[in-house]
């Protein structure tokens, strides 16, 4: 077969189109496409042992203790789960991925010793020391407010819920906690992950992780009961979230999801309203057809009640606050965030069910993230087949997002080193 013959290349590309996920393709992906050096830069946080300082590690070939003491876990074919794996350097990781071709890779904590040695030490001295704080949001937690898809399906319309969650959480983490190194990743099917790479986040205890999680977590949407009161005036964080989300409520919930046109959703909506508003509205709403018509009736009814002084003034609109927080506030999986020892799927895994790559994305442009055209394993394999210089165009954008995150980590690490040296010099006289 002549590889340089364009006809042959087109044919081989076409053949791959229908194969979404096979061990053979995965092996090629791990061999040619997985970004080992970037993953090493990330997980070593540029804490690399210097060549002259051989004593830093008792084992040969360890490029970074920080990387080596990190737990990886693999889920192999047939759901065989292997924990406490660790790797000395990018080559070591590559050898393992290519030979074992895990269907899923998870990343855990950095321990006091290399995790693979956990059985040959006393259990009490095997301790997780550091890990990024993480957030996990799953689309299935929005099943009670979406009409376009259910279960594992996600489309542009329901991605809007994820885009809202991303922007609210990103804002809180940067504004209220001062974190600046956030990596946002699409999980490959129906979820998103956020990794906080700041040193102060990596060093947080479980108690601190719980405190940050509780600050963000509201059970407003998960139950849909509306039985919550955020108080007045709103907490400044809730106020900011409200300001952001309320502008999007009508487009996402009323128009795109066409929610009120569905009887069950209309029922839930009415339950969230004060009794007098719901009574006034119920029979009129049943006569309207579309969600938008019903929403207009709601607004008209509210205006009427405001005018007659039967509800609070519009300046502080407790009903709208309830609706916005119930439908649009982020629904985070709190347990994932609270534990230092919680593993989370690695970026650049391939989701076995969709063939999609877990790609990092930019939270600033999350509204435009094209969920239905995320790069797949077969696209990557096609690009590898067509590439003359080893570059993989379909991964370019997500690798650039990842690199931006890494550049920030590198700058932080250099600043730390500089401060440390200055401190050393000032005391060294
Ligand atoms: Zn959808």
Automatic annotation (TrEMBL):
<dbReference type="InterPro" id="IPR014052">
    <property type="entry name" value="DNA_primase_ssu_euk/arc"/>
</dbReference>
<keyword id="KW-0548">Nucleotidyltransferase</keyword>
<dbReference type="GO" id="GO:0003899">
    <property type="term" value="F:DNA-directed RNA polymerase activity"/>
</dbReference>
<comment type="similarity">
    <text>Belongs to the eukaryotic-type primase small subunit family.</text>
</comment>
<keyword id="KW-0804">Transcription</keyword>
<keyword id="KW-0639">Primosome</keyword>
<keyword id="KW-0235">DNA replication</keyword>
<dbReference type="GO" id="GO:0046872">
    <property type="term" value="F:metal ion binding"/>
</dbReference>
<keyword id="KW-0479">Metal-binding</keyword>
<dbReference type="GO" id="GO:0006269">
    <property type="term" value="P:DNA replication, synthesis of primer"/>
</dbReference>
<keyword id="KW-0862">Zinc</keyword>
<keyword id="KW-0808">Transferase</keyword>
<protein>
    <recommendedName>
        <fullName>DNA primase</fullName>
        <ecNumber>2.7.7.-</ecNumber>
    </recommendedName>
</protein>
<dbReference type="GO" id="GO:0005658">
    <property type="term" value="C:alpha DNA polymerase:primase complex"/>
</dbReference>
<dbReference type="InterPro" id="IPR002755">
    <property type="entry name" value="DNA_primase_S"/>
</dbReference>
<keyword id="KW-0240">DNA-directed RNA polymerase</keyword>
<dbReference type="Pfam" id="PF01896">
    <property type="entry name" value="DNA_primase_S"/>
</dbReference>
């Amino acid at each position: 077969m002549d590889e340089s013959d364009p006809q042959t290349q087109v044919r081989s590309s076409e053949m791959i189109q229908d194969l979404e996920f096979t061990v053979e393709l995965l092996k090629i992906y791990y061999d040619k496409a997985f970004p080992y050096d970037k993953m090493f830069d990330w997980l070593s946080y540029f804490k690399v042992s210097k060549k002259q300082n051989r004593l830093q590690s008792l084992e040969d070939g360890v490029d970074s203790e920080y990387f080596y003491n990190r737990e990886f876990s693999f889920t192999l074919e047939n759901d065989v789960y292997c924990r406490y794996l660790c790797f000395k350097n990018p080559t070591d990781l590559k050898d393992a991925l290519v030979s074992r071709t895990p269907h899923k890779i998870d990343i855990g904590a950095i321990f006091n010793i290399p995790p693979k040695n956990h059985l040959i030490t006393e259990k009490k001295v095997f301790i997780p020391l550091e890990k990024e704080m993480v957030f996990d949001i799953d689309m299935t937690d929005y099943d009670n407010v979406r009409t376009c898809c259910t279960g594992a399906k996600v489309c542009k319309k329901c991605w809007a819920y994820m885009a809202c969650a991303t922007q609210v959480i990103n804002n809180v983490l940067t504004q209220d906690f001062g974190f600046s190194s956030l990596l946002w990743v699409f999980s490959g099917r129906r979820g998103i992950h956020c990794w906080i790479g700041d040193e102060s986040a990596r060093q947080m205890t479980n108690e601190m992780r719980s405190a940050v999680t509780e600050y963000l977590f509201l059970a407003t949407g998960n139950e849909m009961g509306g039985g919550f009161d955020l108080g007045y005036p709103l907490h400044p964080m809730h106020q900011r979230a409200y300001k952001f989300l309320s502008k999007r409520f009508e487009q996402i919930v009323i128009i795109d999801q066409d929610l009120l046109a569905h009887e069950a959703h209309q029922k839930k909506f009415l339950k969230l309203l004060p009794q007098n508003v719901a009574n006034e509205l119920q029979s009129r709403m049943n006569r309207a057809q579309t969600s938008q018509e019903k929403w207009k009736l709601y607004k008209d009814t509210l205006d009427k009640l405001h005018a007659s002084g039967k509800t609070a003034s519009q300046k502080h609109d407790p009903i709208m606050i309830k609706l916005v927080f119930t439908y649009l506030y982020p629904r985070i999986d709190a347990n994932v965030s609270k534990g230092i020892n919680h593993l989370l799927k690695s970026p650049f895994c391939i989701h076995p069910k969709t063939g999609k790559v877990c790609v990092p994305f930019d939270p600033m442009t999350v509204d435009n993230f094209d969920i239905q055209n995320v790069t797949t394993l077969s696209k990557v394999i096609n690009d590898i087949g067509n590439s003359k210089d080893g570059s993989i165009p379909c991964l370019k954008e997500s690798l650039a997002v990842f690199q931006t995150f890494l550049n920030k980590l590198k700058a932080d690490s250099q600043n730390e080193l500089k401060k440390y040296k200055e401190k050393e010099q000032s005391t060294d006289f």
